[in-house]
Amino acid sequence: MNWDDYAKWAADIAEWGRDYHKSIRNLPVRAQTKPGEIAAQLMTSAPETGHSMQDIWDDFQRVVMPGMTHWQHPRFFAYFPANATPPSMLAEQVASIMAAQCMLWQTSPAATEMETKVLDWLRKSVGLPDGFMGVIQDSASGATLAAVLTMRERALDWSGNSAGLTGQPRLRIYCSDQVHTSIDRAVWIAGIGGDNIVRIPTAGNMKAMDTTALRAAILSDIAAGFIPAGIIASVGGTGMGATDNVADVVKVANEFDLYTHVDAAWAGSAMICPEFQHLWAGVYGVDSVVFNPHKWMGVQFDCSAHFLKNPADLVRTLAIQPEYLKTHGQGGFINYSEWSVPLGRRFRALKLWFMLRVYGMEDLRSRVRNHVSWATSLAKRLNDTADFEIITQPILSLFTFRYAPETATDLNDLNQRLVDAINDDGRIYITQTFVDGAKVIRFQVGQFDCTQTDIDTAYDVICEIAKDLKR
Asked: Whose CA is closest to 291, among 263, 260, 250?
């Protein structure tokens, strides 16, 4: 393909993208294919000679599109959104065209300096105090891994990277039973071991970590000869939105000089609205916090904002400086590859810069507020509908409910069948989870172009299919 062909196809695909998004409501939200159906239509080995772009594009439409779940669909109410706004997409195209490797300041000064600036915009917008500095990670999982590695090094007096964990006392990481599984993976990868995750019981409507139990667990571990390394708090957990009392967690952490990380992957974006910042009151006292603009703020995946009170600890944990990565003759710069596990880095700051400038904070706040309001009203509507009950009240725009007709004998089975029937129907997409051992249905509003009409459609679909199951 030459550059003239590239320009022609780039224009054609941009037009297709416009039409795709304008007509996406006509598509089933979740892919309706069966396992193996797509693979059966793909070649068994790579072609020896090239194919025309037209043939490839035709195959994309015929083979790939039927097997896609449409994450940008306005009736995507499952998991959390992975929003992609037009300016963010354009920025990704520009970044892909330049294809810069932004691992060091010298390999792309604009990428580094823009990252510093736009992360500071975000810091101010969510109410984090001066002194916190940010870095864009690939995901909240990557940020949490970086935090756990820092906990490990700090607890071992910075000897873990050099000496390893053999012969060391067991390290302990504390969190509730509501945290995301990325915490488990981070602890595995850090070599600490899953058996050393101490799950603290939760209490109240927010399923917050019981800090009395947290303190007791730490004291018990110290008495047993273990080394407490850090605490991971949740704000807006994936299951039902579990949110710890960050201020109380920080008090315990300070008592034992423990590193504290806050996973606010989804909910953190809502903190651009001052009225929601009470959900992480006390966050000024933590060591690090992560949230994902690629979830609720409209930034193309992947883009996680990781803020640190003392970046030097993270750099001390991760930085390696062979001669070929050193910048001579310059000073006063940041090499963000020393702030993350991967060495290679894409120009992620560009899409954040585009998106924030096109929409502005006022528009983004309005969207978040709408989503929270619509989720609250839908929860009330379902609660007032016969045979439905709200299990957990909305935390921001996430709530859980259950279909519970009096004639049902196995509510867990019934609710799973309801979820499956709704998703097979295709008009909306939802997921399930467990709350206190009961299978419930999650509903989360967050897709960038969602409207009140989409919420009304969701109510109608849920009630219609539930009624069919009851027959």
From this structure: 263
Query: What's at 245, amino acid-wise?
Result: N
Tens-place pLDDT, residues 413-448: 999 999 999 999 999 999 999 999 999 999 999 999
Q: Considering Cα of 268, then 274, then 279, then 283, what sign does the dihedral take?
A: positive
**Predicted confidence (pLDDT) per residue in 73-125, tens digit:** 999 999 888 889 999 999 999 888 877 877 776 678 888 888 999 999 999 99
Report helix, strand or coil for 243. Answer: strand
The tokens for 25 are 């409501």
How many Cβ atoms from other residues are within 10 Å of residue 99's Cβ? 8
For residue 348, give Cα distances in angstroms to 172, 285, 300, 365.
34, 28, 9, 22
Q: How far apart are CA 59 and CA 73, in angstroms?
A: 23
Sign of CA dihedral 219, 220, 221, 224: positive
Contact 419, 443 (CB under 8 A): no
pLDDT digits (tens, 9 = 90+) for 141-160: 889 999 999 999 999 999 88
CATH 3.20.10.10 assigned to domain 1-30+69-84+360-471? The reply is no
d(CA 395, CA 233): 16
**What span, in angstroms and rounded, lies between the C-alpha atoms of 338 and 103?**
9
Q: Which helix (H) or strand (E) holds 118?
A: helix 109-125
Q: What is 101-346's CATH number?
A: 3.40.640.10
Percentage of residues in the chain having pLDDT higher than 70: 96
Is the Cα torsion angle 54, 58, 63, 68 positive or negative in sign?
A: positive
pLDDT of 78: 93
Long-range contacts for 157-163 (Cβ within 8 Å, ≥24 apart)?
A: 158/316, 158/317, 160/191, 161/317
Distance, in Å, from the CA atom of 71 to the CA atom of 448, rounded to the nearest integer, reads 11
Its pTM stands at 0.90
Query: What are the structural domain ranges in the chain?
Result: 1-30+69-84+360-471, 101-346
